[in-house]
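S1.2 Input.
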Amino acid sequence: MCFAPWISMSTFIIEFMLALYFLLLNPKDRLNRFIALMSFMLGFYQLSEFLICVSGANTFTRMALSTTAILPALACTYALIMWRKPIKFWNFLLYAPAAAFMVLFSLPVNLRESATCSQVFIQYPDIGVLFKFFGLYYLVYLFGAVALFYFTASRARSEPERRLHYLGMLGMFIFTVPTFIFLNFLPALRVQFPSVLCEFALLLAIEFIFVLWYKEKHKIKF
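S1.3 Output.
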């Protein structure tokens, strides 16, 4: 068996345990609940990778890509919660592109083959222009989340809250910058983009610990 399954399963266990920790730390706080959800989704992707490696079933390839499709929309919702904006109907429109990609990934015409395990990452079938649009979607949404965090920081009620918003922004950079640097230095790994991205997402989960520690220290509630 290749090395990748044990990386994926270990990351899933870490992410899942962190999600439980975030939730139990303050289950009544909206930010704690949402960060727990994000950590769980990152872990669920890793579980999908593990199942790809041990079964080779195409179903888990679709499940993995569908999971990654929802993450950028979650990033924007994360920023909106920091902004203390109530979640209204129009906010769910943020998830329209994610829903579209999930449908497209479920179509047999787009994913005829399962992803395969390499030494460390998962290699996905090249589905041409769809992956280009998928990358563009990631870029637009994650930079949109950064812009929202910057905007909310400028309207923060206090200095500790402003710093908390900057910590949220830092998480977006931790999630994306190493991934894009890695892929630019090793462009042959572009078909492994979802796997590379979610391995670096473990850094984001660790950064969540500092976000919630800082929030609790300064008694900031959401």
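S1.4 Remarks. Helices lie at 4-25, 30-55, 58-82, 96-106, 129-154, 159-185, 193-217.
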